[in-house]
Structures are given as structure tokens and as C-alpha cells.
Amino acid sequence: MQAKRLIMNPFITTGKIPAELFCDRKEESKRLLQSLTNGANVVLMAPRRVGKTQLMYYCFDKHTVSDNYITFFLDILKTSTLQEFTYELGKAVFNTLASRGQKMQKLAIATMRSLTGNIGFDPVTALPTFGIAIGDIQNPTYSLEEIFRTLESAGKKCLVAIDEFQQITNYPEKNIEAELRSHIQKLTNTQFIFSGSERHLLEEMFLDSARPFYNSADIQSLDVIEEEKYAEFVLHHFLSNGKRISDDAISHVYQTFDGNTYYNQKTMREAFAETASDALCTKETTEQVISQMVREANRHYSEIMARLTLPQKELLYAIAKEHWARQITSGAFIRRHSLKSASSVQSSIKKLQEFGLVSFDSGSYYIADQLMRLWLII
Questions:
Q1: Which among 121, 125, 115 is positioned nearest to 149, based on CA atoms?
Q2: Is residue 106 scored above 90 in pLDDT?
Q3: Are 165 and 202 in contact (CB under 8 A)?
Q4: Is the pLDDT of residue 1 over 50?
């Protein structure tokens, strides 16, 4: 009896996406690669979960980058001080170099002395491990100098991607932008991708002539994949695996999540799994999948809401109902949603943005997590 062929789900939501399962982004990757290979730093702005991290990984794997650069990636969204930033950058640089052979290991240990005092070894890979804790970094400025000196001594050009770079504007240290800029502008062997999801903050950092990073990088924006392109991608992978999907099923998912790549993929992954060979995935199938996703997220979102004040909750519900909320301190908006006052809205929106629950773009506030918005308005 012939074994049944195992069908691999083509809608990937975690880890690095193989090139053959990467959806579109031809123009975006071309532009990013062009800037990088011409020696420029890049600011990459995109709403959360539309694929900017995957785009960077996709470009890192291209021969024009992989053959000529050592690439580093770090996400600083959860950092809140220069000390934590230094820790994450040091860990990313050390771990990447440690994986590239003994010569690079010795370079990292020799040049990053303040960060490599407690080196261990992984028993499985036999590679040295970054053994310090955040609290061990007593002088972040000095440690940063060591890290950048390491990058300059790597012998091969370095490309450092820092995700959610706008987070440094929340650090308590004064002149953090000026300090980082003073280090970066001296580098000759290292380029940077400063990516982030808060467009207005990144634009202020890099387009305001009074700020240290003014005009120091190419500005690039990443929008959601066009519905037509995504529909072609979905249809191709259903058909090539002996399954079918209706046009309205694809459109329903895309419109529900405003084209958000992560939630599109997550829904399609479950819908693909629910659809038998030679069967049709319908709009009803995707509606059931989305309803299940909302139910499964209930505990997580309830815990988030429990940590908010009443004015913050009321404003969050108001923004969710409007979808794209404008002029939120206006009398009309406040009356429409029975909010307390303009000053209360101002203080609440500041906190909601700090918590990463609300984003701002093109004059509108919106819930950063599309699934949370669905949960709020049900």
C-alpha cells in the first residue's frame, strides 16, 4: 500500500520563511537591497506584523548581502533603558560572531571585554555563550564603544538591523539619540537598518533637522501586500496542494484584518488545515477560524484590559469602534463615545501608545493588534 503524501502547510507564521513561500515584495526587496549595497543606512517603517522582519531576513539571504556582509538582528521593543539596549546589541553581536568560527569568537572575546567576563559553552554546539546579565553592564557607554569597535574589526562588512528602533525615545537617559548617532557616524565598516512600527516617531527622529539622526538614512515604507497579490498567492498554494478556496473567503480574511500579513497567514494556515483534499474552503470556513482565534485570545486580552484604568479602557473601546479614529480630543468624539474630557483623553492616549496598544498614522489612531480590535467590538 502506497504511503499517503504528507502535505506541508504553506502558510507560515513563525520562523524564517523560505523564499519559495515568500509572498510578493519584489519592489520592496529590490529597493532595500539597492540602498544596502550602495552603502546607505535605511529606516524601514511599517505597521506591526505586516512582514518587515521577514523582508529583512529575505534580503539578508540574497547573495549580494550574504556573500558580502555579516548580518545581525535585534528587536528592542521590550527594552526600556540604554543598559538593556547595550545588552541586546552585545548579545546579538557576540552570538552571531561566535557562530562564525574560532577567529570571530576570539575577536568578540578580545574586543568586548566588559561583556564577555562570564563566557560559558553550549554542551550541544560547543560554541561559547553570552553569559552576562543585564545588571552586569555597569557602563553602557563604554560597552557600546567596545561593541562598535568589534564590528569595525570584523574583517567583513557588517549589517545591523535594529527592530522597533523608536523605542529609544522612551529611554530615561538624556541625549540617547545624540550618543548613538555619535558612535554610528564614525563607523566605516558597518551599516544599519532602523526599522519600526511607529511611523510618526521615526519620521520625527530622521526628518526633523533639530534631531541627531536627521538625514542619516534612506527612508522606506512598507505597506500591506495588495489584496490582488495576496489572493494570487493563497489561490496558488491551495491549488498546488490539491485544495480549492473561494474568492470571497480570501477577501473576507484580507478585509477583516486590513491586509495584516501575520493574521492573514494565521487564518489561512488554519483554513488550509481544515480543508480536505479536493474540497473547497469557503467564507464560512474562514469565519469559523477567525471566531476560534478570537475565543483563544480572550484570556490574553482580558489580562491586558485588567491592567488599564477605566478612562484608558473607554478610549480603547472608542478607537476600536471607529476603526480609524481622528480628532480624538474634539468635543464631537468625546460626546459620541461618552468620554470624560479632552485632558483625560490626552493622558490616556499617551499611555495606550506607550503600552503598544494604539498606533498613530496619517492623522488617525488605530488598535495596533487587529485581532484585539475584533475582540473589543464583539
A1: 115
A2: no
A3: yes
A4: no
Provide the grid cell at 5: 503524501
pLDDT score for 126: 65
313 contacts 352 by C-beta, under 8 angstroms: no
DSSP 327: -
Rounded Cα–Cα distance for residues 250 and 283 (Å): 8
Distance CA 298, CA 184 (A): 43
Question: How many Å apart are CA 327 and CA 332, to the nearest integer?
Answer: 9
How far apart (Å, rounded) are the C-alpha atoms in residues 322 and 377?
Answer: 10
**Which grid cell is 87?**
545588552
Residue 210 near residue 174, CB atoms below 8 Å: no
**Sequence-ordered strand ranges (E) for the chain:** 42-45, 69-75, 120-121, 128-129, 157-163, 190-196, 218-221, 244-245, 280-281, 358-361, 364-367
Cell numbers 505597521 label which residue? 47
**Model confidence over 73-96: pLDDT tens digits?**
999 999 999 999 999 999 999 889
| Number of helices and strands in the chain (H, E) | 17, 11
Cα(234)–Cα(245) distance, integer angstroms: 8
For residues 148 and 287, what is the distance between their CA atoms, to the nearest angstrom?
A: 50
Distance CA(347)–CA(90), nearest Å, equals 35
Residue count of the chain = 378
